[in-house]
Specification:
The protein is an alpha/beta fold. Helix 1 runs parallel beside helix 9, helix 8 packs antiparallel against helix 12 and helix 11 packs antiparallel against helix 12. It is elongated and about 70 Å long.
Length: about 350
């Protein structure tokens, strides 16, 4: 590597160090936060089965019965995450209804469940919705049991009309798992606005779909940066995107990655045999050279790196440059099939 390449490597190392420190500060801050997710809906709306699907394991404390007069309180799921569940504000006594409203006010997210196979958005449900909307607008409407209902598009349109089109309505089937990934992503996006998405993702047993979402998002971001018409202007932000992705994936799978390992993987991607093409794009000194190709390569490189690391975590493969290089090459060769890591053997 010539002096020009060495200077770029030094820049990348400094950028990787800074990105790692920034991301770890954010992760450590998030892991000390608290998350409260409130659920409301009749007993037949499938709250417990839906939450079990979202987190990938059985959630205790979800599934309150109509007419309960016991104390309304959050049920701990994990150390920093709790759920509170009621069958409907009209189904609990007056004292508990007031207490429950306070919990709904404090909730990070309210999941409002409707039964697509029943009477969708009844008058009782409307009244409960309006009460909650008055104290907390962080609501996602979950239309469950779509596998047992017809005219789902019509139901969605009616719910949107009834609620003024202000809230996401996610049609799901807790029985078949249809659209559960979509609902989980909605939850993570809402928590991201509160800087709590990493905490939730780390705490739930289901990891793969979240990892896929993060990898694709990082690839899109890298591709956008790689489209820069100024050669070399993209390398530092792409380094930050890749280090951030590696750090998040490590936390997601509860397998911490050191600063040095994250840095070496990114450098190998850019300078080693697995990244010569992107390096050639970077070092060109001709104005505007290869900006479209740069975008494509930057996105594909980040995608393959992310899926290689994800595959290693899920198959007990040690995270080091040699192993990830091998996996990376396979994912790059797969091209469009790189979004299906389970198709690739180690």
């Amino acid at each position: 590597m010539d002096d020009y390449g060495k200077s770029w490597e030094e820049e990348i190392r400094r950028a990787a160090d800074a990105a790692y420190e920034k991301e770890m500060d954010e992760i450590n801050r998030q892991l000390n936060e608290q998350i409260l997710i409130a659920l409301i809906g009749d007993v037949n709306t499938g709250k417990s089965s839906t939450m079990n699907r979202i987190v990938g394991e059985e959630v205790a404390g979800v599934g309150a019965e109509p007419g309960e007069t016991t104390e309304i309180k959050p049920h701990p799921y994990k150390e920093h995450i709790s759920f509170i569940d009621t069958p409907g504000l009209n189904d609990v006594n007056t004292v508990n209804s007031d207490v429950t409203l306070q919990y709904y006010k404090q909730a990070d997210i309210v999941l409002f469940f409707l039964n697509a196979a029943g009477t969708v958005f009844s008058e009782v449900e409307k009244k409960s919705f309006e009460k909650i909307e008055g104290v907390n607008k962080n609501i996602v409407i979950v239309l469950n049991k779509i596998d047992a209902a017809d005219e789902i598009e019509r139901l969605l349109a009616r719910i949107q009309k009834e609620t003024g089109g202000h809230y996401d309505v996610v049609p799901v089937s807790s029985r078949t798992g249809q659209n559960i990934d979509q609902l989980r992503n909605h939850i993570l996006e809402m928590l991201k606005k509160k800087s709590k998405d990493i905490l939730f993702a780390k705490s739930i047993k289901e990891k793969s779909a979240t990892a896929n979402s993060w990898i694709i998002g990082a690839s899109i971001s890298a591709g956008a940066v790689g489209a820069s018409p100024i050669p070399g202007s993209d390398i530092i932000p792409i380094t930050g995107i890749q280090v951030s992705l590696l750090t998040r994936l490590a936390v997601l799978y509860n397998k911490p990655i050191s600063k040095e390992t994250a840095k070496e993987l990114v450098i190998a991607t850019i300078f080693g045999n697995i990244g010569k093409s992107i390096f050639r794009q970077i070092v060109k000194l001709f104005p505007g050279a290869g900006s479209v190709a740069g975008a494509t390569v930057a996105g594909a490189t980040t995608l393959a790196l992310g899926y290689a690391v994800k595959y290693a975590y899920e198959h007990g493969i040690e995270i080091n440059t040699a192993n990830i290089t091998k996996l990376y090459k396979k994912f790059r060769e797969k091209g469009e099939q790189a979004s299906k890591p389970d198709d690739i053997s180690s």
